[in-house]
Structures are given as C-alpha cells and as structure tokens.
Design goal:
The complex is a heterodimer. Chain A is mainly α. Chain A has 15 helices and 3 strands. Chain A is 69% helix and 3% strand. Chain A has a 3-stranded antiparallel beta sheet. Chain A starts with a helix and ends in a 7-residue tail after the last helix. Chain B has 23 helices and 23 strands. The chains are: A mainly alpha, B alpha+beta. At the A-B interface, helix 8, helix 11, helix 13 and helix 14 of A face helix 1 and helix 2 of B.
Chain lengths: 385, 635
C-alpha cells in the first residue's frame, strides 16, 4: 500500500512548463540519452578496444568479441534508458528479493568456478552470476526504502538499510567473493551517505570497522589473506602470488612518461603480465602509453564521474538522485580499485577496469547502470518536485 | 495540506543535502584520483630506472655460446682427438600434441631395447622449464635419425640436436698420453672462470687434455635473446662469437705409438721414446690401455669399478707414474757420474772375483756371474753389465755424490715440460732416509744403489729422458709433448732446464757409447741377440728389476702368482750412435727371462723410427721373442 501511494505521488501532476508552451524536445531528449555522457563513454570504449588489441597479443578476434559485447551493452543501456524511474522504483524490491533468493540458490546448488561458488547454471540455458545483478539491485532497494523516509535518515531507517545491505553482502562474501561483496556493500552504503547519514554516525561506523578488522581478518580465506600479505610485501613470494603485482608495477614503471609505444610493451607482449587484457589491462596501458596515456585515461574517467554526478544532482526526486549518485560513484570505485591494485597500492581483488577490461558481464552491468542514470536524468521533467 | 508542505520542505532539504554530499564526493573523487596519478608518477618517473631495468631483465636472457675445443694432432698431422657431432633426441613437451603417444611412437621407431626404453621414459618425466627441451636419448645412429626424420610430421616438439663430443679415434693406444675430457664436476666448477666456461660441459681431466686445458678450451661467446615469460626464445638481440680453442700439434708419432702399443701385446709395462736433439716425446705408451671415450660421456659405475679392480691396473699411467727399480739400466749414468767426479777414467780397470767387499766387512756383494768377469774396464763393465765395477764405483763416489750426479740426469725429479701428474720417482739420499725412516745411511745401501736396486725408483719417462740426455752428450733438452700450440711453436730451450752434464774430455762420451754399443753388438753383450742384423749403430743397456713383494691387499690365483713374482725387464737404448735420432726406454713387468724381452721391443722401436718400411711388424717381433725365451743371461 505505501508503495502505491508513493508511486502515485511521484506520478502526480504533469510537469508544468515554466514558459507556458512546452519546449520542443531534442533528439537526445526523445531517446532519453545524455549526449555528453554517451560521448565520453564511447571515447572510453573506443580507446579500450585499442588497448585490448595490444593486450590480447594483437588478436583481432578478441577485439571483435569485445566490440560485440559493447554493442550489446549499448543496446541494453538504450533500452534501460527508455524505462521510467518509476519502473525502477517499483521493481527494485522485486529484483532485490529475487536476487537474494538466487544467492541462496547459488549457495546451495551453485557452480564452482575459480575456487568460488559464484555461478548459477540452468543447463543449456544460461550461466549467471546473481552477485552481478545485486550490484544494481541492492543500492536501488536502499534508495527505494530511503526515499519514502524523512531525510536525513533516522537511526531506525539506518538499521533497516543495514539489514537490506547485510543480507546479500553476507551471501556473496560466503561464496566466497569478497571483492564483489565489498563493491555491492559500498554501492549501497554510498546511497546511505548521499541520503545524508550524519557525520557522527559515519565516525561511529568507521570506529566500529577499525575495531572489527581483526575479526574480519580471522574470517578471511587463506588465499584472501595471502593476497593482502602479498600486497603488503610482494617480494616475499616473487614467483607465486607476488608475481602479479611485481610484473604489473614493473610494466607500469618501465613505461616512463611517454611509454614504450602502442604494441611495443615488452612486459605485455612477451606474456610476463598476468591476465593482460582483463584485470591487469592498466599495466598494458601504463607500459605502452606511459604516464601521459594514464593521465589522459584517468582524466576521461574523471569527466565521466563529474558529468554523472552533475546529472544526479539535476535529478528532481530523491530516489533518482540517490540511485544515480550511487551508480556513478560505484563506477569510480571500480576505477580506483582497479588502478590502485595494478599499480600496487591496493591488494589484488578481481575488479576489472570499467569499459576497458575484456569481459561481457561487467560491461553490460555498467551500461545498464548508465542506462538507469540517463533514464533518471531524461525523465526528470516527468517527475514532481 | 500541512503535511504536503512539510514534504515540500523536506524535498528541498533533501536536495540540499544531496548536493552537499555530491560535492563532497567529487572532492573525494578528485583526491583519490590525485593519489592514483601520484602513484603512477612515482612508478613511471621517480622509479623509472628501476622498473626499466627490471623489465629488460625479464625480457632479455643471456645465453652462452661455448667454444669448440681445439683439436689434437700428432707430429704428422694425424688427428688424435676430434670433436664429433653426436645426435641427441629431445622433446619440448609443450609443443607435442600428445606426449604419451609421441613417446610410444618414438620407442617404436628407435627400436629401443627394454633397458633403453625404461631410461627413455624416465628421462621424459624429468622436470624442465616450459618450452625447454628434455633430453630423451643420446648418440642416435644414422638409421635412427633417418627414421625420426621420415616421421617428423607425426612428432611435433621432437628434435634431433647435434652436440659436439670429444672423440679419440685410437682411444686405447692414446688414452694415457692424451688423457681425456669429462663432465665438469662440482669441485672444478668452484675453481673455474665462470665467464670463460659458460656453457661448457667438459674439461680436460688428465694428460694433455688437462695440461693444455687453457689453450684447448678457448673463450665462450654469448648471445642475448629476447624471451617471453615461458622462456621461449623469440629473437637474437646481440651476439659475441666464441673464440675456439687452439689446435695442438703433439710431438707424438702415431704410427710409432701404435707399434709400441702392439709390441707390448697386452702385457703390463711401458715404452717411452724421445728424439734426443729436440726432447720431443715420440711415443709414450702405458699398457694395458683403456677406452677413454667412455669417460667423455660419463662411464657407468659398474664399468668403472671393473676397470679399477682390474689387477692389471689399466687406469694407471705407468709411463709417468710407474715406479720401478732401474736395475742395471743406470750403469751408464753411474759411469758418467764417476767420470764427472773424477772417481774413474775410461781407463779404470778392476779385477772382478765375482763379488765386492766393503773394507772391514765380511759380507760379499755378488756379481750376477758367480765366478766373476775377471779384468773389467769401463766399456766391458757396460757390455757385460758387471756389478763389481759399479759396487766399487758407488763406494768410491759415496751416496752424496751419487745422488747429486744422478739427479743431474733427472732421476728423483720431474723432467718433462708438459706432462700432467708426472711422478718424480725416488732418488734416495742421506737426508731422504733420515726423514723417511729416521735412520742413517748405511754404506751397503750405496752399493745397492750402484746396481740400481734398493730404494731407487724411476719412471719409464725418466729413463727415456736420461737416455736422451746421454745420447746428446750431456746436453739437456726438456722432454715435451707439444710441438705447436695454435700458431706458436714450442721453444727448444724451456725454462727450468737442468744444467748440462760436462765431462773433462769430450771423447770420454765415446767410451760410454762404445760400451753401450757392445751391449747389443759385442760378442759378450747382454743383449747381443737383439743386435743381430742391425743396420745402424745402436747403444743400449739392459736391466732387471726384482719384484720384492706384492701388495698385501692384492690376491692372485695360484697360477698367476708365479707370473707376478717374475722380474721386470728393462731396456734403454739410443740410435744411431753417431747422430742419435731416438732414445727409448722399455719396461715390461714380470717379463722374466732377463732383459731380452725389453731389448727386442726397443730394437723394434728404433728400427721403425730409423729404417724406411723395413721395420718388422709387431707380429714378427713377438715370434722372435717366443723362440728366444731360452736366452736367460745378464741382468
């Protein structure tokens, strides 16, 4: 019942054109896309394809496969952008509940890959990682809950959010997939932060986390602990887990200011780099295009994040703002975690570089996120103040 | 209505909060981005050199290029040691489609026997870096190579690799003279120049191969190659060619060496021949020999043990390490010592009753001929190998002068320039005996030394060297094995050459020579049968060395015991007397039958060296020896 009331209030009255006569809507407005954001994303994807060509050992098949994925992702974005934010608001709880159920299913009957139980397989039909969907479903659920509360959130609301967040995060962490669970958690926590969580509470939570760290450490899997330890001192195990970090920092460092040139990176072309076209693609970039190339790419990401935040704050209702802000800041977290990991300031976690690393699922998830972001922006006039 | 306005107010407040938080988020984003850029700047600018070097090291591998070992020739350019390509079968497992299938097919193609098959599979399991070949089997035959070649298409990853391996064409004959190379062991690695020996697996272990190791080895080259992370070579970046080892031309004459080996006919002993004027060692044989090629690749434990436990000690280089009492062969040298010291002149004559007695001593030191040789002068003392003359001379000289004079001929010291592990033998002296036994020297021991018995021990090489010096009328030329090293010729005069032996009158040499000629050509000569039909003038001296005892740990079969207790036969000779071209020392262990056996072999050697094509075949000499066994005379 409260949901219906809420959706009605959002639908409410049609937008009142300020000047009396409704403005002619541009092409971009009609297809619900933001040309600036789309342009930046396309530049990023195009650059990504060039790097993938080099990182895959100049394998055109890989580039074509990735281009196809990008095309699918763009279509997904375009479709999602046409949906109204009300749709997301209405379906967020459904998606959330289904997601949690699937995570439970994964726990029970999931397929094991890379030492963790992440995949849900309906034989012959689909192989699916429910945790991927939760990257969007959980923050939307939190935003859907918070937008009907009085903001800044009260303690009771925060407790509810904690439960909403905690359940799927715990399930994902149990797979075990600490990296994704942290990303899902941070996407949702960003919603709470943007909603205006009081500084006092933020401080309290930080203190609790610091105190709880040893407990967390005790519950980590051996390989996870090893990763953290190796990150702290990669030279202790130069041929084992330290190999990745040593080789990637070597690749980046040896690139210098101007880089060794596209397709000229010895670390990446001679296969010293682990997973050069997926998680460690930044190392290829840093080696071949140097500091200048890195700064250019990082600046591109910065522009995307800036534009995204701008669009979010232009949104005229709380749900849209919170969701859009979360999507774009999570996007930045991906960038930061990936570059930080490859350049050796963060431990190795399996986070790809958004829209550059080779991979379908993450690209589609990201672009669906951008689709939601654009939908929120494009439909702002339809929303009441 | 009021509720609605509350909501409106709240919405504005929410927007305000959001914008503040979004702004803050952007600040955090920019801060974190700066952190990343800072980190990248640190890696790519500040630490650039470090990582640049590290990346080069990753990529570039330095591979040594071992030099080809120098070849060894005899004095006529006949190859004595070569590098032969042997063919190894290797497999790069990563390239094979199905390793098990490939292995099975290879076993079938190569027709390996059971034992070979099991080592073959064992080797295929050896750990190896990815993309590095695993050695499956070595020394493939032509036929095996051909079969692998025909089926190449079915055998991806299989390669036939050539490797140069030392090979000695006449290993048994040359083993002791040349020595051999073997795999470098851990101890040797520690003492080697790692740069020079990078990539080299073999090193000279004994003989010439060891002595001239530095010259034969050469200098390793290197190539820098680019590899990928799996160690696969992609291309060559830089190359320094190796400097091959120098070829060595030896003084040995292969045909003379072969003859010497055949003459020994499997008996234990040694023959050494030297060209007196140049000091060049023409032949140096120690028998029995062994197949040194088996040591190159590494001999198996069982075979090595068999060689070591062989009673004939085939691994023992008798020519340079065998210790024998010289017996009567030292009589010419002793006579020369007496002449130098003025103890005798060529005209000195004694009366031999068949024994010698020291003053105030009743003990009789016997001549080998019980009833004595009567009047004996210097020449006759040599021809008949009279003992009494030399007892008297030794007593006259005393051990100190005797030791000094014999040392001048090289006894008790290492004589050769480039013979590895040469033994100095043993030239006894007062000091030596005090040190060794803590006893003073007895006059009777001087008499024993006078006939080459007692503590005195020589090597065949020493005897040949002393004979060469004698033939040179006292002029010392150090014996040597190398004639040319690369382009350089070995000097005739080498450092540390002993002082020449000078007599008061030069024609005194002729007296000695004359005495030695009578040994083989005189009517009373101890080796007169050997001199029959001689086409040139030859000087010689026979000797018999008593076998005093057997090693305590040596056990012989009853019928073998008698043979091993027989005397050793010795003979030294040079020819032609007027212009000596060859000096020979022959020692045949447990030959029995006096010195005849050795004398015949020495004659065969000089014949071979001095006469064209008329030299008897080893076969004929052996036949002569068989009919001659009755000739038991002299010592």
């Amino acid at each position: 019942m409260p949901w219906q009331a809420l959706t009605r209030s959002i639908r409410g009255r049609p937008v009142r054109p300020s000047g009396g006569i409704p403005k002619r809507r541009s092409l971009w407005e009609r297809i619900h896309l933001d040309p600036w954001l789309l342009g930046l994303l396309l530049v990023l994807m195009g650059g990504g394809l060039l790097v993938i060509y080099s990182a895959s050992g100049q394998n055109m098949n890989v580039v074509i496969a990735q281009a196809i994925r990008f095309a699918v992702a763009l279509v997904a974005m375009l479709v999602v952008a046409q949906l109204s934010p009300i749709f997301f608001l209405r379906w967020a709880p459904v998606a959330y509940v289904i997601g949690v159920l699937m995570l439970v299913a994964v726990e029970l009957v999931g397929d094991i890959g890379m030492g963790a139980q992440r995949w849900l397989v309906i034989p012959g039909v689909i192989r699916f990682q429910p945790s991927e969907m939760m990257k969007l479903a959980v923050p939307m659920m939190v935003a859907a809950y918070l937008c009907r509360c009085e903001l800044p959130p009260k303690l009771k609301d925060i407790a509810v959010c904690a439960v909403i967040i905690g359940l799927p995060v715990a399930l994902i962490a149990a797979q075990p997939d600490l990296g994704t669970s942290l990303l899902v958690a941070s996407a949702a926590i960003i919603v709470v932060l943007l909603a205006g969580l009081s500084w006092r509470l933020i401080g309290l939570v930080c203190a609790l986390l610091a105190a709880g760290f040893p407990l967390l450490w005790m519950n980590l899997h051996n390989y996870q602990r090893q990763r953290v330890l190796t990150f702290l001192n990669p030279d202790t195990d130069p041929l084992g887990s330290g190999w990745n970090i040593i080789q990637s920092t070597t690749a980046i460092g040896s690139g210098g200011v101007f880089g060794k040139g596209w397709l000229q990176g010895t670390q990446s072309q001679l296969e010293f780099l682990p997973e050069p076209h997926t998680d460690f693609i930044v190392a290829v970039l840093g080696e071949e295009l140097g500091l200048i190339g890195m700064i250019a790419v990082i600046f591109l990401y910065l522009l995307i994040v800036g534009r995204g935040l701008w669009l979010a704050s232009e949104s005229q209702n709380t749900f849209g703002r919170l969701v859009a802000g979360s999507i774009i800041l999570t996007f930045f977290i991906y960038v930061f975690v990936n570059v930080g990991m490859v350049s050796g300031i963060l431990p190795v976690v399996g986070v790809p570089l958004p829209l550059v690393s080779y991979g379908g699922t993450s690209s589609v998830t990201l672009m669906v996120g951008f689709g939601i972001l654009m939908s929120i922006h494009a439909h702002r006039r339809l929303l009441p103040r | 209505m009021s509720q609605r306005s509350d909501k409106l107010k709240n919405t504005e407040q929410e927007l305000r909060i959001f914008r503040a938080r979004a702004l803050l988020a952007m600040v955090v984003v920019v801060a974190l981005t700066s952190l990343l850029v800072g980190r990248l700047g640190y890696l790519q600018v500040v630490q650039f050199d470090v990582y640049s070097t590290r990346s080069e090291k990753n990529r570039v591998r330095v591979e040594p290029l071992p030099p080809n070992r120098g070849l060894i020739y005899d004095r006529n350019g006949v190859l004595l040691a070569e590098n032969r390509p042997t063919y190894n079968l290797t497999l790069v497992r990563e390239r094979a489609e199905d390793v098990d299938e490939t292995l099975d097919l290879l076993v079938e193609l190569l027709e390996l026997n059971d034992e070979e098959t099991s080592t073959f599979y064992e080797r295929s399991q050896q750990w190896q870096r990815p993309f590095q070949p695993v050695l499956l089997t070595s020394d493939l035959s032509e036929e095996q190579i051909a079969r692998v070649a025909i089926n190449r298409h079915q055998l991806p990853g299989v390669e036939v690799e050539a490797q140069l391996l030392r090979y000695y064409p006449d290993a048994e004959v040359m083993a002791h003279a040349l020595g051999f190379v073997g795999r470098i062991n851990a101890e040797e690695v520690a003492n080697l120049d790692a740069t020079r020996y990078a990539g080299t697996h073999f090193i000279g272990k004994t003989g010439i191969e060891r002595f001239y190791e530095d010259e034969l080895h050469g200098q390793a080259g290197l190539r820098k190659v680019e590899t990928n992370a799996r160690g696969r070579v992609l291309r060559e970046l830089e190359r320094t060619d190796p400097v091959p080892g120098k070829d060595l031309t030896l003084t040995l004459d292969k045909s003379l060496q072969m003859l010497a080996y055949e003459l020994m006919d499997g008996r234990r002993g040694s023959i050494v021949a030297i060209e007196p004027g140049s000091g060049e060692i023409l032949a140096m044989v120690s028998t029995p020999g062994f197949d040194s090629n088996r040591f190159v690749t590494g001999i198996d434990r069982g075979s090595y043990q068999t060689l070591q436990e062989n009673l004939d000690l085939p691994l023992y280089n008798r020519a340079i390490r065998g210790h024998y009492p010289p017996g009567s062969t030292i009589k010419p040298f002793l006579a020369l010592g007496g002449l130098v010291e003025g103890a005798i002149t060529p005209d000195t004559t004694i009366n031999d009753p068949g024994y010698y007695q020291l003053p105030n001593d009743s003990r009789r030191y016997r001549n080998w001929l019980r009833w004595g040789h009567g009047r004996v002068d210097l020449e006759r003392s040599l021809a008949v190998s009279n003992n009494t003359f030399y007892y008297s001379l030794a007593h006259e000289l005393g051990i100190d002068k005797l030791h000094e004079q014999m040392s001048n001929f090289g006894f008790g010291r290492r004589v050769a320039h480039d013979v590895q592990s040469e033994s100095p033998g043993l030239m006894p002296s007062r000091e030596w005996k005090r040190e060794r036994f803590d006893q003073s020297w007895y006059p009777g021991e001087t008499l024993s030394a006078g006939i080459g018995q007692g503590y005195w021990q020589i090597t065949p090489l020493q005897l040949a060297s002393a004979t060469a010096t004698l033939a040179n009328r006292g002029e010392w030329v150090k014996p040597r094995m190398a004639r040319r090293i690369g382009d350089a010729t070995l000097d005739r005069d080498l450092p540390d050459t002993p002082e020449d032996i000078v007599l008061a009158q030069d024609d005194w040499w002729d007296s000695i020579f004359s005495g030695m000629e009578k040994v083989v050509s005189g009517s009373e000569g101890t080796a007169r049968r050997t001199g029959e039909g001689l086409e040139y003038r030859m000087g010689g001296k026979s000797g018999t060395a008593q076998v005093f005892s057997l090693g305590q740990d040596q056990r012989y079969e009853a019928d073998e015991l008698e043979e091993r207790l027989r005397d050793h036969a010795l003979f030294m000779a040079f020819a032609p007397i007027e212009d000596p071209q060859i000096a020979v020392a022959v020692i045949v262990e447990n030959a029995g039958g006096g010195s005849t056996h050795a004398a015949h072999l020495a004659r065969a050697m000089t014949d071979e060296w001095l006469l064209d094509d008329e030299a008897p075949e080893a076969e004929e000499v052996r036949e002569t020896l068989e009919t001659d066994d009755s000739n038991v005379e002299g010592n």
